[in-house]
Write the structure tokens for this entry.
Amino acid sequence: MPELIPNRNIEDFSEATLSINLSSIEHNYNILKSIANGAICSAVVKANAYGLGVEQVSKRLVQAGCNNFFVAHLNEGIELREIIGDNHNIYILHGLKRNQQAAFHKHNLIPVLNFMEQIKLWNDYARELSTNLPAIIHIDTGMNRLGLNIADAEDLARNKSLLSHIDTKFIMSHLACASEPNDQMNAEQLEKFDSVRKLFPDIPATLSNSAGILLNDDYHFEMVRPGISLYGGGNRPKNVDIKNVVDLKSSILQIRNIDSDQTVGYGATRTVKAGSRIATIPIGYADGYLRSLGNNSYLHIDDVKIPVIGRVSMDMVIADITGIDNITVNSKVEILGENCTINSIAELAETISYEILTNLGSRYNRVYI
Ligand SMILES: *Cc1c(COP(=O)(O)O)cnc(C)c1O
């Protein structure tokens, strides 16, 4: 049975329902874990589990046997620690800043150390406490976003005192082009990572995000770090049974019959012919239905695809329902789901499924299945 979690502690008249299928997330987790065949399968739950609700998602992943979680911010890690308790590893991708050491320690959070200053902060702090503290060391292999450069990694390997009080759990890197399986950069980064790893021969390694897991076994190492594939987005090769997770449904606010040629919406960007029938649906860019979808997307009523016409407003979007029988204001409209997948809607908006998910609004009734 769906568990109803109303947005607010008041009477709920939400105009749309966002269903998040936790069993599909669990299913996807198990699929990825089996592909990674032997590697630890962690879960990336940064940004409120890609907008889907870090509490519900991570509790379900714990039930599914996940023991390792990644978030980006320290705040996210503190929140997650409260949610899942003390028995699971939580890694903070952004690492630590000055004055955060005690908070990391207190909440038992593991920093990903991305540059020499972060390593020094953590090592010094551990030395003061006369202990060893856990960390992941992130080495850049081509992303040029975070991570030690190769020269620093070599320094680190030569000068053991730099890591004297750090218990290095993993050597990590991140792929820049894994969503393009044929991009030669994947192999180049793999080769670099392999040679960097030789500097730290006894330490386990982690390289792949979701798309990296789907490349091939060479990319799996000792731990993988899927995010988007858990949530039904990203690459979905035909032989991999990744399931949809989100279903966003609304209803129709108003139906109009057009008796002479007319324009619709802001900017009068679209003309509909006399005899058309159009519907206004209470979902707009404030709800995460991106404005770039104006005149450029579709919704679904049962099996019927209906085009979005005119610009997307803050709270509404207009669709052409001309010639489709049986549509009333009570008809359920699929905004995202089996027919309007996050990948296909993202493509129309010239973005990626990640951005569709993380933009999902807060005005929905959220239901966890
Ligand atoms: C966000 C992130 C991931 C997860 O990436 P997906 O493409 O969502 O699977 C993995 N590793 C790092 C370093 C990340 O920042």
Residues 44, 46, 93, 174, 209-211, 225-229, 234 surround pyridoxal-5'-phosphate (CB under 6 Å).
